Amino acid sequence: METIFTTVSSKGQIVIPAALREELGIQAGTRISIQREKNHLVLQPITDDFIRSLRGCLKGKTSLVEAREREHRIEKDRSAR
Description:
Elements: H1 18-24, E1 31-37, E2 40-46, H2 48-53, H3 64-80
Antiparallel strand pairs: 1-2
């Protein structure tokens, strides 16, 4: 991994070098998440590719459809009694 240096302005701004912006698809207006990991800052551009990569990451053991169908069966059984 190549190390690239930049400087923080008096307003707390940094410049992301053009080569990195092009590689990562960062354009004017692209939102960036900043996370602190101990004494490091991790910058993540919020691009369409990043958003697509999140699809399904919060999926539980059963789907909401399966849970809802199970509830319907239970309600149906109760009302049939």
